[in-house]
Amino acid sequence: MRQPPAPRIALAACAALLVAGCGPASAALHDPRNLPALERDPRVHYDANAKGYAEAVAKLLPGAMARVEAAQGGPFARPFVVAAYLDDDAYSAANGLGSPKARGVTYFDRVAMSPALWREEPAYLEADLVHELSHEHLWGHLSAVDYFQIPVWFVEGLAVTISGGGGAQGVSVEDAEREIAAGHVIETPDAAFLYGNLGLKPPPPQVENEDQRLAMHMAYRQAGLFVNFLRAHDRQGFKSLLDRLTAGERFKPAFEASFGTSVAAMRERLLAAARASAS
């Protein structure tokens, strides 16, 4: 895999932060690297009262990294930090989204883990850590421009697949397959629009007053099912796709060269398989 380019140009950095929902001012002023670091693992930082949380993250980190490296074809390309937060405001400022709702956010060489993940859903910690590290691994091998040319369904689906469902725990595989069989499917474009989609959209039909959290879990679960389908269909082709992407190739030609067909054709195969399974 190629090494990441040396300093990224300001335009690419701003575009990356904008598309990720990370405000540049927020990211600059609330850098998690300024928080205290654990003695046992200086990569792990923590805010006030979150040292126990950070210790749990540090215990999981080596295994989580190994899972990502094995699945995504090699070592992490650059150093990074993981920050554990128990203060909602501090987390909102540090993640760049201005909201504590996301369980984890990754941008450049920083992974921020939410207070809610520790307080309310600690059982999800390992899977969500692997999910975020999948993003960090891909980030590390690419410029911001290269990263955001990859369609969001693939980026998130890869992270869901490798983490065993991290980010999609609210929806089962069976429920997602039933929705796919019924034709309620997320969009899977073969190119990112304007250097990255703003985020996954729940599959239609969207019902008024629908639980948006579960709707997004459905979107993430479906993205994971599609990526897992690609990997199971042709493991060598899947490896080729990851290698081509980390070498900076555009997604559409990299996909077609790796699988010998289009995203649309593979999507139809997934839909057919889901319908056959449901019948």
Provide a quick synopsis of the model.
Helix content is 54%, strand content 5%.
| Cα distance spanning the termini | 43 Å
Strand order of the largest sheet: 1-2-4-3
The fraction of residues in strands falls at 5-15%
The profile of the biggest β sheet is: 4 strands, mixed
What is the residue-mean pLDDT, rounded to a whole number?
A: 86
The tally of structural domains comes to 2
Number of helices: 13
Task: Return residue spans where pLDDT drops below 50 for at least 5 consecutive residues.
Answer: 1-28
Q: How would you sum up the global shape? A: globular
Helix content: 40-55%
Structural class: mainly alpha
Give the oligomer, counting copies of the same chain as homo and different chains as hetero: single chain
Task: List the helices and strands in order.
Answer: HHEHEHEEHHHHHHHHH
Radius of gyration: 18 Å
What are its keywords?
4-stranded mixed beta sheet, mainly alpha, 13 helices, single chain, globular, 2 domains
Q: What do you see in this structure?
A:
With 279 residues, this protein is mainly alpha-helical. The protein folds into 2 domains: 1-144, no CATH class; 149-279, no CATH class. Helices cover 54% and strands 5% of the residues. The chain contains 13 helices and 4 strands. It has helices spanning 10-19, 24-29, 51-72, 88-95, 115-119, 125-140, 144-147, 152-162, 173-181, 212-233, 235-246, 251-259, 263-278; strands at 44-46, 81-84, 104-107, 110-113. It has a 4-stranded mixed sheet, sandwiched between helices. Helix 3 (51-72) links the parallel strand 1 (44-46) and strand 2 (81-84). Helix 6 (125-140) packs across helix 8. The termini are far apart. The model is unreliable at 1-28 (pLDDT under 50).
